[in-house]
């Protein structure tokens, strides 16, 4: 959430009005906005639907064990209708929607309302090059294929997982209780958004 908040602050400094949608507890745990910032960020709480698989007040990955994150993604899919209602009733309509990879259903809603979407990708550029690959081909690899450099990297590199790391990471490529893998969600959002913004820095990337 913090990268999205930082982006919102940067846009607000340039005179853009921001509607920041998240769940109530997530909004409460965000740091306070600096008093010098123009009052152009509105925080819009959207309540998660009840879930037997989530503890009370579990609204972010920080609240959960890694094995339970899939239940949070499933619960987030229940935000489909309230967010659709918000967008339909918004006046004026947003010029853009900036989203992450979990709500794969958001861009089709936005398309019906003629609102373009952009994906803010919090994974660094090198990770995207290694994992995603051209047209998402990297998402279909087995754990064993992750221990060597991918064939689409055109220069020598030692970038690869160790086998135990690859097996731990492979959950990203497998369907979970929501019925979709994180990789599939990621791929859908990449294909449906107008562009993808990467977080990074010249010294690292």
From TrEMBL:
<dbReference type="GO" id="GO:0035251">
    <property type="term" value="F:UDP-glucosyltransferase activity"/>
</dbReference>
<protein>
    <submittedName>
        <fullName>Putative UDP-rhamnose:rhamnosyltransferase 1</fullName>
    </submittedName>
</protein>
<dbReference type="InterPro" id="IPR050481">
    <property type="entry name" value="UDP-glycosyltransf_plant"/>
</dbReference>
């Amino acid at each position: 959430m913090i990268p999205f908040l930082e982006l919102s602050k940067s846009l607000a400094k340039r005179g853009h009005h921001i509607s920041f949608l998240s769940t109530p507890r997530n909004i409460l745990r965000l740091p306070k906005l600096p008093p010098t910032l123009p009052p152009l960020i509105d925080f819009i709480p959207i309540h998660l639907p009840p879930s037997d698989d989530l503890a009370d007040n579990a609204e972010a990955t920080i609240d959960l064990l890694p094995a339970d994150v899939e239940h949070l993604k499933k619960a987030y899919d229940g935000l489909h209708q309230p967010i659709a209602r918000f967008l339909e009733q918004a006046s004026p309509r947003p010029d853009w929607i900036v989203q992450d990879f979990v709500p794969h259903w958001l861009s089709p809603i936005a398309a019906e309302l003629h609102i373009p979407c952009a994906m803010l990708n919090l994974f660094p550029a090198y990770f995207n090059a290694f994992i995603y690959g051209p047209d998402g081909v990297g998402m279909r690899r087995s754990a064993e294929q992750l221990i060597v450099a991918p064939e689409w990297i055109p220069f020598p590199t030692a970038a690869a997982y160790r086998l135990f790391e690859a097996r731990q990471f492979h959950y990203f490529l497998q369907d979970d209780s929501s019925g979709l893998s994180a990789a599939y969600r990621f791929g859908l959002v990449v294909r449906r958004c107008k562009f993808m913004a990467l977080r990074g820095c010249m010294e690292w990337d």
